[in-house]
């Protein structure tokens, strides 16, 4: 079948249009998928100039806010609690009365001890008088000659003055010892009576009350106190065990008290970082509860003994705070950064520009001059001091950031990977390669390290 001429002309124009569209698509695809992967693009790396300024090195950890001094006083004598004079959250002074137990038994013991002391004192007085009389008799006998008894006359059975005097001395010694024991018993009874009133051993805030009125407390422990930098025994959180109708406080302390006016940060550092820190180093603390607030701190001490958790060895460090935020509470999470070294007004480059092999450090020059060996000083978290080998203004390549500059590995719609430079140095590309150092050509977001 032969088509009319005008129909053949229309079909030819349609074919030409289709061919043109196909060619346009092919060219676009070539430019998109092949041109961007040229050797020049693949090897392009961001370059930076050697700058001058300050370089600091630091180690970081997280810990908690803790009280520098705590105490858990307990009644030294046993008795039934009759009153609790404080509440949780109340601030108490050192030596203030905080609780009382029934003093009846202690008062009765004091009365008995006083009576025994009085009796012992009377015995001493009587023994002293007996000794005085014996001494007078002995002196009189010594001054009067003893007549010789007649033959066959028997002597009286009375003791000689010397024996009477010796017995009087022994009696006084025993009476004196009994009086001393009575005095000690009275002092102990008076101390037990005083112990029926529990007093705060430190100034601070009541953080827990581990008993109730009517419970039996004391007798088993005198309480304990501890400091964060001392070696005191640990303080226990009290609990109350109920048996029948009488409850007994079983904790190491009847009331817990903590100093909340000068909280400290206690943080654990891994052994590799612990050897870099020492007392009196400055630090910066931030609280998770107040992330925008930086608190100046000072390292007080590093524990000489390690703690091992899941095979990881760490050392506890204690920091004092220059100023305590009003909202700070015991147990809050705190992040601490300790400055371990600082170099002022020195040449530095991003740490990602330096390649280290053993003790050799090299950089790649951005002018095509190849690599150059440099000497480094303080190595901070983001920047490294260069002590020799470079001049201010020299441009070096970010070796570890080459992947980000090369456009990443994302295809169309994939995620392009940004540069591996440390956070805050050189940003990776934006979505679809729109950043300073472009990422992949795909529409995914870059991930800068």
TrEMBL record:
Q: Where in the cell is it found?
A: Cell envelope
Give the transmembrane region(s).
Answer: 12-33
Q: Which Pfam families match?
A: Beta-barrel_RND
**What InterPro entries does the annotation carry?**
MdtA-like_b-barrel, UPF0194_transport
Query: Quick one: where's region Disordered?
Result: 119-178, 217-248, 409-449
Start and end residues of each Multidrug resistance protein MdtA-like beta-barrel domain: 264-340
Looking up PANTHER family in the UniProt record yields:
BLL5650 PROTEIN (PTHR32347:SF23), EFFLUX SYSTEM COMPONENT YKNX-RELATED (PTHR32347)
State the name under which the record lists this protein. Answer: HlyD family efflux transporter periplasmic adaptor subunit
Which organism does this record belong to? Kribbella alba
